[in-house]
Write a structure and sequence with these properties.
By secondary structure, this protein is α/β, with parallel strands linked by helices. It folds into three domains: 7-79, Udp-n-acetylmuramoylalanyl-d-glutamate--2,6- Diaminopimelate Ligase, Chain: A, domain 1 (3-Layer(aba) Sandwich), CATH 3.40.1390.10; 94-308, 3-Layer(aba) Sandwich (UDP-N-acetylmuramoyl-L-alanine:D-glutamate ligase), CATH 3.40.1190; 315-449, Mur ligase, C-terminal domain (Protein-Tyrosine Phosphatase, Chain A), CATH 3.90.190. It has 17 helices and 21 strands. The strands form three sheets. A ten-stranded mixed sheet has the order 7-8-6-9-10-11-12-13-14-15, sandwiched between helices. A six-stranded mixed sheet has the order 16-17-21-18-19-20, sandwiched between helices. A five-stranded mixed sheet has the order 1-5-4-3-2. Strand 19 (387-391), helix 15 and strand 20 form a beta-alpha-beta unit. The chain is globular, with a radius of gyration of 23 Å. Bound molecules: adenosine-5'-triphosphate and magnesium ion (MG).
Length: 457
């Protein structure tokens, strides 16, 4: 088997030193998920990865290190620079098409859609999970197998000026900005700054490259200007008649949706095992990007059909209720920002149920904007839900802003809310659970799906 990287290639790419036996078949930055033959890159975070090198050896791995450690190592000057150099080399040897995705919401979903659709066109490589930062992007590129025809790369940020260097490393042919929301506005200061940062994904775009931007966004023109400044051509997607990739029709039912798109004059239909219109928008962006990269949209759209929810991103299941009935659980526990909550509320509102219940935890990283953005959810929440349970100091602002008839219980954290929600459920309810990752809303999911759960719908 040809390794992912030969020793000679590793030396060339990183300027480091290693013996000829260092021929890794994979790359890892976490010894908990390491496989034999992987190159474990000893990065420094809260802990120093060099402390785990012995463990990596014990599992049959090689290691990239920047200290004197005996064993099957690739010795470099700095491990993060080494990983980045290997990412650049992974990208350089790839002769296919690269599509990069950013946005305030929907990055992973759109990347997963690209992965599925592109796989119908040729050998495809994509970021794992949400590996979208200064470690995740080079890791993804360094892991790209030889002979990859299509790559879907997720790029994210917490602060201004983080996306451009990752985009330059990725050198995409097509870039997507899914949507502009308020995620990380605490660090960025304004939605304009978020839009400018996201549009920087066009930095380092390949000559003749195309930026696929959300035409319906208030920041479309602003992002288009930035993308053009980076040398990209602009293609809008959305419902607006001006969009060249346009959603002509959309029908959502309780658990699925069907959309009709026009992609530069070509009509395609897509059926998703996902009810939200926002998911159809992500599909439109993915197909527009594939078309812009020269892929066959008919094949791609057919492959996309049946796309379902990712973990904690709208999964639906039936759960048992204390009165020996069943309720529908909408598991949105993975993360939350205000646009994602509004999108999930639309799905809750579309459910046939005796009562629609929203269980919401704080949206984090909003800085001084936090209290107002939580309060501002009140009208939409009150319209979509009959009863609202909240947890976290920021959600207290929403709780107070709700009409009394909608107010359920408010607690400080998810752990204390979980048993209250579990006891309150009744036969025929539909319940949405959503909050920032750090709020651990998954503990509420566990409380609701414990013994007696009836599995996936
Ligand atoms: N286009 C969209 N508009 C609004 N909400 C969306 C959209 N796409 C996905 N969401 C919702 O946003 C949440 C996060 O989705 P996803 O994981 O795809 O986003 P992400 O941008 O990768 O997030 P992260 O920043 O955590 O990596 C999910 O709850 C999902 O339902
Ligand atoms: Mg993600």
């Amino acid at each position: 088997m040809i390794p992912l990287w030969t020793a000679a290639e590793l030396r060339d790419a990183t300027g480091g030193e290693c013996g000829d036996a260092v021929n890794p078949t994979g790359i890892s930055i976490d010894t908990r998920s390491i496989a034999p033959g992987d190159l474990f890159v000893a990065l420094r975070d809260q802990r120093d990865g060099h402390d785990f090198v012995e463990g990596a050896f014990a599992r049959g791995a090689f290691a990239m290190v920047d200290r004197d450690i005996p064993g099957p190592v690739l010795r470099v000057a700095d491990t993060l620079a080494g990983l980045t150099a290997l990412g650049a080399a992974g990208r350089a040897r790839m002769g296919g098409r690269v599509i990069a995705v950013t946005g305030s919401v929907g990055k992973t979903t759109t990347k997963e859609m690209l992965k599925r659709a592109c796989a119908a066109l040729g050998p495809t490589h994509a970021s794992a999970a949400s590996h979208n930062n200064q470690w995740g992007v080079p890791l993804t590129l360094a892991r790209m197998p030889r002979g990859t025809d299509w790559a879907a790369i997720e790029i994210g940020m917490n602060h201004r000026h983080e996306i451009a260097p990752l985009a330059r490393l990725t050198r995409a042919h097509v870039v997507i900005v899914t949507a502009i929301g308020t995620a990380h506005i605490g660090h960025l200061g304004s939605q304009e700054a978020i839009a400018d940062e996201k549009a920087d994904i066009a930095a380092g775009i390949e000559p003749g490259g195309i930026a696929v931007l959300p035409q319906d966004s208030a920041f479309f023109a602003r992002m288009a200007e930035t993308a053009r400044r980076h040398g990209a051509q602009v293609l809008g997607f959305g419902e607006s008649p001006e969009a060249s990739a346009r959603m002509l029709a959309w029908r959502g039912s309780a658990a699925s949706s069907e959309a009709e798109f026009e992609l530069s004059g070509r009509h395609v239909m897509v059926r998703l095992d996902q009810p939200g219109k926002h998911m159809a928008m992500n599909a439109l962006a993915a197909l527009a990007a594939i078309q812009a990269a020269g892929g066959d949209t008919g094949l791609a759209a057919a492959a996309l059909s049946g796309f379902g929810a990712g973990a904690g991103r709208g999964e639906m299941r039936r759960i048992a209720t204390p009165d020996h009935g069943t309720a529908l659980l909408l598991d949105e526990s993975y993360n939350a920002s205000d646009s994602a909550i509004r999108a999930a509320l639309a799905v809750l509102a579309a459910q046939k149920a005796t009562r629609r219940i929203a269980v919401l935890g704080d949206m984090r990283e909003l800085g001084d904007f936090g209290p107002d953005l939580h309060r501002a959810l009140a009208p939409d929440v009150a319209r979509a839900a009959d009863l609202v349970f909240t947890c976290g100091p920021l959600m207290a602002h929403l709780h107070e802003a709700l009409p009394a008839r909608r107010q359920g219980v408010h607690t400080e954290d998810a752990a204390s809310l979980a048993p209250i929600v579990a006891a309150a459920l009744r036969d025929g309810d539909a319940v949405l659970v959503k909050g920032s990752l750090g709020m651990r809303m998954a503990s509420i999911i566990r409380a609701l799906t414990g013994p007696g759960s009836m599995g996936k719908d």
